[in-house]
């Protein structure tokens, strides 16, 4: 069985290994490889006069200058520009994932301000929807995945990992530097151990948690830190030295050693004591001294204990080595129960319980006052006693929490300054046993009452429960007589289980007072300006999403196999500029989106550059799954633009109108509509597929989602006064962002007439309404609605 | 290298044909293209008509993922029992180190834990017997298929070059995974042959698809396999309107969608995605009724259901897939590809516990597969359907660990049956230990060539002008198994 699993792992790796002939490749250690050299400063080529308007300030856009110089070298030229409306829809979808309204299109078409495009880009970059749109892209690249397990048992990722998603949205909206984002994700607990906003970022690593297999968990970390940040297929070096790249098997395990100490935990957040309901999933260093060994042939069961490995990065990328220093953690990071909100949370929860118990007591008193007849009065009196004992127990809980907190504090303060710890522990234990006794008493009274009220069918059951309650009470009474010194601390945090056999008890042990600093050193190394890969890899991801094809074809493989890219000059210029601009993503978007290249039409140019390597035109892209759904709902006016918060169960996909990125997504929780359109595989998705299947046609034609959206949009257009031909034309332009051509308008008229005739037979009362909705629905199925032209 | 304007206009013309532009309704472009065939010289897209007389019209492609042991299925080797525990050098057969043959394999992962040759001979884990009048020897794990021995033609001399499970892709495309990838055989058939039923996809995949999920490759997404689940509860997602749209309204809607999309196709001539989308809509409209009907087994007799093992838990899932395959064939689907064996590598990958593994898995496929052959035969469909029963490679004659066998690309078995195939045939052979294919050996594309031949297609005439293929991509027809 083990072998079988192992074999699958190997296969997974084989598949991701690059496809080229080893013998064709240089055998040196990658010294001369373009991507391992720092990006070179290159002068921006001069633009000829004919190549479109210059940027404000008189400088041509460098994107255009580089692209155009390549085109001219090959005797190619840029095709025509897209219409203003097509450009507008393109940039709306690219930056917010939502199409422009008809009003926005018309305003922009009328606008003759030469800075019109710039204004649009600024407005969209400033809208909160920008962060959501790009968070979804980064959720692909950083492998966002909600938890899954069996029932409530957590097996994979972490509960409430959506806090990490919210961190992405907020970070993008505030244009936090990409360098800082990398550092916070890998080492937020080391650079800002007391800041819960930053700690959310470590969801990047908490997401890799896997209950059953630490080896495969860390394999994932090594593989995907390599792919996401550096475009390196580290994973190919687990079982053997990398076939193509200068990465040895020792390098692989040295990389793993960076992560060897880390583990996941769930900390309390302000306002919630129940970690099942909410909490902060985050990482921390737990195993400070655990050694890392090379595994023989990558077999986790066969470590070579003669070869412990120190954390390091591959020598071939050795512009600098890791500078690792321990990080002293503040006391509150080590003892989460000392976070000020933890005691407040528990006090408030106890307070709420007292208020509720008091209310029930008042109700019981009222019942007693209004009860008529002996038996009813007896019952009501009993009810009042039960409510009163329950209130007593609730009040004891508050006492217990206060005592536990005091003892907790005493345990944490430096030795010598502590008050009498044993006395405080004793008091806490007494308070706890007192509460438990009061609770047992309340249980016993309630059980008596239930038995009294039970009808003949439930009497046996009630008797059994009463017996049990009596036994529990007896035990609590004994405990209260000699409470000892053991009490339950306010935990404030739960360590994630280190395997299916770990007991709950060991999950609340104190956390280490230091962190190894390995991850912080690694993150600093990643975003060192001398790192040749980090900025290039990011620029390539952003470019691919705006232009429909990457500058470096293998987005996760910048290794020796990656040929010198056609547009290396542009890639390098953008990478250097990106770092110079403080790793600002918004600035990078501006560079790309305000170019004339981005504004080209996607219509065929009749060129010999059939793969459009030189960007004579724009590439048409199919909208991704989320954008298709969100666009339909947005046009229908039903999209709920609330930002952030807990995930939504995909079983509510027909009724939940939030943006698609908020649905729970794991291998176990799939959103049917989104899956049909090549949704990201949460295990690995650096670039979405764009399949074309009849099932997609059925999803758009038959889903309640599309049908309802069509009804709403048709209704909206009518309420805005669209009628007759005007309705058809307005619907067309609203959905496709272009006006229908004369022939298209004729087709629409005939199509609508046929729909109307069919609708008359279905429903004689409102055939026009039906036909209008069916017409809008047809347009949602238009190729150009689900494409960016 | 560019084809300039000529190529551009040619593509555009081909494109207009394919999308049926200028013709009303939902007519498929391929039908129109037939009439215009041979109208001009030079390259034209396929017409949908066979190049020469076909022996068959459909293919059911059964693929066991992970690697079936050839010695313990269709190529029994009693010598393994005789020499068990010995090294190869201790046997009289020294041909296994033939350097010419050993060179065939292109290793993907050097010194991998798997994909190694094992030097200690492992005895057969199951008995075998001759079957039928032809007396083809088949192991006791496949008693029902053995009962069909006179209908099948076993090829015992297959070889491939990938020593790992990338060989699954290779078996479908003919290329090692470290090479540029080619379309799969199903995509070629889909591309080359016209449809016989406009209501159903012409190329269907059932079960976990091999690693590389794209079948159409450069032929475009329109020729890719359409994945279907055989789940009577939900045979097809979104199979009917969730709102209250009437059939007439929906017909009018699809008609309008088609016309509007085709109008756009003139502006964006050569847009493969748009072409594929137009086709997918035409197909989707008709599929929504047709697919659930195919997967509704109510019209089948109890006897037929038993034939496929639908009454037994172990055989039911695979039996349902094969019964659906027969029903698709009856309705004119060209290529149904059924993948057996879950997991990344494929469940047949018995590196350890081979006996338990193959006992369990063979039970799932043996009876339904024999049932399929019998059923096709009774209905007169076996004459026009080719059934292929294949796997990516065999397993090593030597043992891996104490009770497993490793990957073995040097020699392994598959079988074919049906239209144009001579039943009761054994073709080719491995050496005494089942190591190398030594007689009439065949690379995987020979299977593709044979299929295309039986379907009446000439692979050279399917080739795209700017995508010349290698001889090894075209393969050679396996003449020895033809009727």
Structure, explained:
- The complex is a heterodimer of chains A (789) and B (483).
- Chain A has 789 residues and is mainly alpha-helical.
- Chain A folds into four domains: 194 residues, no CATH class; 189 residues, no CATH class; 133 residues; 87 residues, no CATH class.
- In chain A, 51% of the residues lie in helices and 5% in strands.
- In chain A, the strands form five sheets. In chain A, strands 4-3-8 form a three-stranded antiparallel beta sheet.
- In chain A, β1 and β2 form a beta hairpin.
- The longest helix of chain A is centred in the middle third of the chain and has 39 residues.
- Chain B has 483 residues and is α/β, with parallel strands linked by helices.
- Chain B has two domains: 89 residues, no CATH class; 360 residues, Alkaline Phosphatase, subunit A.
- Chain B is 33% helix and 13% strand.
- Chain B has 15 helices and 15 strands.
- In chain B, strands 1, 4, 5, 6, 7, 8, 11, 12 and 15 form a nine-stranded mixed beta sheet that branches.
- At the A-B interface, α1, α24, α25, α27 and α28 of A face α1, α8 and α9 of B.
What number is the mean pLDDT of chain B? 86
Number of domains of chain B: 2
Number of strands of chain A: 11
Principal-axes geometry of chain A comes out as flat
Principal-axes shape call of chain B: globular
CATH architecture of the largest domain in chain B: 3-Layer(aba) Sandwich
